[in-house]
Amino acid sequence: MSRTVYVNGTYLPEEEAKVSVFDRGFLFADGVYEVTSVLDGKLIDFPGHARRLQRSLDELGMSSPVGMDVLLTIHRDLIAKNDLSEGMIYLQITRGAPSDRDFVFPDPETTQPTLVLFTQAKGLIDSPAARTGLKVISIDDIRWGRRDIKTVQLLYPSMGKMMAKAAGADDAWMVENGFVTEGTSNNAYIVSGNRIVTRNLGNEILHGITRAAVLQFAREAQMEVEERPFSIDEAKEADEAFITSASTFVMPVVAIDGVSLGDGTPGPVARRLREIYIEQSRKAAI
Ligand code: PDD
């Protein structure tokens, strides 16, 4: 069945949804995005995603064509129109489509930003990967220096997933100056005993909305949290590892560059945090 998607003020069947060839998202990757998960037909962590979206827009001198309250309504309309019970909502805002290709930003008075949202149905809770855990490889992080802005420049993360696939793994962790920054589309963590280590916030990583929630739940559960860089060598010695993102929640990692962690199965901390995250997010969903 065809999805109903949102494009610039209109709900359309996906086959009819179009943007201009001059759109700066298409020509310059001049756009930002958010992915918000949906459980039981409700939005997880919407206020966090809305805040980060506003920050991404501000950092790039862009604006949203509608306010965050209207964005919430559009998210809810799409859930209803597509009868979405579990999955994600993808949102993208670009600097719009001026009349020609030009590196210089268009005048916002005459060029409206483009706003697109669509649903993605996906089983998030009952995921086979959560039972087996993921295998990751390490790759160089050669992305730009403002990874804290959630832009649509995703070619290298996409190449990273392909490198992982070619190596018989599930995903890649990126390494810069000897330290892990993050996964291709997720934040990265290692666990030793009761201590969770994850990269501290900065321009080097995306400030994950799931990360913020999971670290809070971990602290509330009396786990120790250290926000600092860690190396692949340290990660290979860890008891366990995991990633977080809106589309995976907490997902165990069981091998790094072919080295199994612990007994090679999902560790207790990752499993516990996944349970807590799902339980608490369900309660707080809107
Ligand atoms: N990716 N780091 C990167 C590079 C990401 O792309 C993402 C999210 C995260 C986790 O952020 P959050 O917890 O707010 O989802 C970290 C989304 C899911 C995507 O691109 O599909």
From TrEMBL:
One of its GO terms (cellular component) is cytosol. One of its GO terms (molecular function) is branched-chain-amino-acid transaminase activity. PROSITE patterns: AA_TRANSFER_CLASS_4 (PS00770). It catalyses: L-leucine + 2-oxoglutarate = 4-methyl-2-oxopentanoate + L-glutamate; L-valine + 2-oxoglutarate = 3-methyl-2-oxobutanoate + L-glutamate; L-isoleucine + 2-oxoglutarate = (S)-3-methyl-2-oxopentanoate + L-glutamate. It is an enzyme of class 2 (transferase). SUPFAM superfamilies: D-aminoacid aminotransferase-like PLP-dependent enzymes. Its cofactor is pyridoxal 5'-phosphate. Pathway: Amino-acid biosynthesis; L-leucine biosynthesis; L-leucine from 3-methyl-2-oxobutanoate: step 4/4; Amino-acid biosynthesis; L-isoleucine biosynthesis; L-isoleucine from 2-oxobutanoate: step 4/4; Amino-acid biosynthesis; L-valine biosynthesis; L-valine from pyruvate: step 4/4. Its EC number is 2.6.1.42. Keywords: Amino-acid biosynthesis, Branched-chain amino acid biosynthesis, Pyridoxal phosphate. It comes from the Bacteria. InterPro entries: Aminotrans_IV, Aminotrans_IV_CS, Aminotransferase-like, BCAT-like_C, BCAT-like_N, Class-IV_PLP-Dep_Aminotrnsfr. GO terms for biological process: amino acid biosynthetic process; branched-chain amino acid biosynthetic process. Belongs to the class-IV pyridoxal-phosphate-dependent aminotransferase family. NCBIfam families: PRK06680.1 (NF005209). Acts on leucine, isoleucine and valine. PANTHER family: AMINO-ACID AMINOTRANSFERASE, AMINODEOXYCHORISMATE LYASE. This is Probable branched-chain-amino-acid aminotransferase. It comes from Rhodovulum bhavnagarense. The lineage of its organism: Bacteria, Pseudomonadati, Pseudomonadota, Alphaproteobacteria, Rhodobacterales.
